[in-house]
């Protein structure tokens, strides 16, 4: 969509500094259908930006929040949504890197640029605007910028709240991109694609000729595959219980597929057999401890021929230590497991501490290690020049008022990303 800067600047002069009435999808309770209704959106305050949202989509984080799976994170009424693209309608005091008419994408993992985390090259976290599912108001004054038509507050979500025709964000959670970039595709960089590609590039640093296993082939898992393909991985194994995901997987570079339901052995054993000991990198994109365990065990091992774990020590339901004091042998290995799935609290890692002495590693990743303001414009350019193919991720498109239908498509596993036109 090509929206002329001058025409939009003229339009914004009539709304800047004023309360805007627009349509939004409001969540009134856990699992209740979203209600499209009129809401009021206040002007941006200091270091805030009001954005006209043109496209938004739904990911599993929206889904779990809509369901209210974590009671501590519930806040209603609330405007969900964190994947989007749009145009700056107005800016608050102090905002210098964006102006009316700029094309922008929001991101939930903010980058203030001044805190100790933002100044460090070792992390993409931010002390002030980092992702916080408990946060439901703006930083400036602890209030919302959304309200019902009778003036009652409507809460924010993940620094973004994109299920609205207009939204207000801290400028730290928004970045300007090239006006030539297709906004409908750029919305995917707000979360899913950036999270997966970045996990392969920034967190794992996948090397040419390496082997990769991806557990869970939703949008994030397929984005991992896309990132691994671009990096030159020679073997990319996709693991999912939904065989319909395999067709999409081939399009983004997956070379082999495993459906755990078709196996009579654990997945890690199958992967070990077809990779001569395991993969160099594994990615857990499901949010399930047993899947995480399989992902960890799928990385490379060199097992002594006389090693028999079933007889050497008791095997727990999940944890199988890779060291036997009985036989005195270590199982050597290597490999990195990247944790991407959102796991319910208070579950603990299904690992024995001694397993981390045998060469394998595990690390978590948020937003693919990307610093939003610093690095997303470059990622957008790479998408524009064809380095990454975003077309495969948009499986459905619907008008905004059909948002509940889009949720159902995701629940049924029929969509990767359903693009909603506002």
From TrEMBL:
A Gene Ontology biological process term: formaldehyde catabolic process
Cofactor entry: Zn(2+)
Reactions this protein catalyses: a primary alcohol + NAD(+) = an aldehyde + NADH + H(+); a secondary alcohol + NAD(+) = a ketone + NADH + H(+)
Any one cellular-component term (Gene Ontology): cytosol
Keywords: Metal-binding, NAD, Oxidoreductase, Zinc
UniProt EC number: 1.1.1.1
Gene Ontology molecular-function annotations: alcohol dehydrogenase (NAD+) activity; S-(hydroxymethyl)glutathione dehydrogenase [NAD(P)+] activity; zinc ion binding
Domain Alcohol dehydrogenase-like N-terminal: 46-177
InterPro entries named among the record's database cross-references: ADH-like_C (IPR013149), ADH-like_N (IPR013154), ADH_Zn_CS (IPR002328), GroES-like_sf (IPR011032), NAD(P)-bd_dom_sf (IPR036291)
Domain Alcohol dehydrogenase-like C-terminal: 219-298
Family as reported in the entry's similarity comment: Belongs to the zinc-containing alcohol dehydrogenase family. Class-III subfamily.
Oligomer and partners: Homodimer.
Record-given protein name: alcohol dehydrogenase
């Amino acid at each position: 969509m090509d929206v002329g800067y001058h025409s939009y600047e003229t339009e914004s002069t009539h709304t800047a500094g004023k309360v805007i009435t627009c349509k939004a999808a409001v969540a009134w309770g856990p699992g209740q259908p979203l209600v499209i209704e009129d809401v009021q959106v206040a002007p941006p305050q200091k270091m805030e930006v009001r954005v006209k949202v043109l496209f938004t989509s739904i990911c599993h984080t929206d889904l779990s929040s809509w369901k209210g799976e974590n009671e501590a994170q519930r806040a209603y009424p609330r405007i969900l949504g964190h994947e989007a693209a749009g145009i700056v309608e107005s800016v608050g005091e102090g905002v210098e890197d964006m102006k009316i008419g700029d094309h922008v994408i929001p991101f939930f993992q903010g980058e203030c640029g001044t805190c100790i985390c933002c100044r460090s090259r070792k992390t993409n976290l931010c002390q002030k605007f980092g992702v916080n599912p408990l946060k439901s108001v703006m930083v400036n004054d602890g209030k919302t910028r959304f309200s019902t038509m009778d003036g009652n507050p409507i809460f924010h979500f993940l620094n973004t709240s994109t299920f609205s025709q207009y939204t207000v964000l801290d400028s730290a959670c928004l970045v300007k991109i090239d006006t030539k970039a297709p906004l409908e595709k750029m919305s995917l960089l707000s979360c899913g694609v950036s999270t997966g590609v970045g996990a392969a590039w920034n967190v794992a640093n996948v090397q040419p000729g390496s082997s990769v296993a991806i557990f869970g082939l939703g949008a994030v898992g397929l984005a991992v595959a896309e990132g691994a393909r671009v990096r030159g991985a020679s073997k990319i194994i996709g693991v999912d219980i939904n065989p319909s995901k395999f067709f999409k997987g081939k399009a983004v570079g997956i070379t082999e597929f495993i459906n755990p339901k078709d196996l009579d052995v654990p997945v890690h054993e199958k992967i070990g057999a077809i990779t001569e000991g395991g993969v160099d990198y594994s990615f857990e994109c499901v949010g399930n401890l047993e899947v995480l365990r399989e992902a960890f065990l799928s990385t490379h091992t060199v097992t002594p021929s006389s090693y028999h774990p079933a007889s050497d020590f008791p095997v727990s339901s999940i944890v199988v230590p890779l060291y036997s004091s009985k036989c005195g042998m270590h199982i050597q290995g290597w490999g990195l497991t990247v944790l991407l799935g959102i796991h319910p609290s208070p579950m603990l890692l299904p690992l024995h501490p001694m397993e981390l002495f045998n060469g394998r590693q595990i690390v978590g990743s948020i937003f693919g290690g990307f610093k939003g303001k610093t690095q997303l414009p470059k990622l957008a350019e790479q998408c524009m020049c064809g380095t990454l193919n975003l077309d495969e991720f948009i499986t459905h498109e619907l008008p905004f008022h059909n948002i509940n239908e889009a949720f159902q498509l995701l629940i049924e596993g029929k969509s990767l990303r359903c693009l909603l036109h506002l």
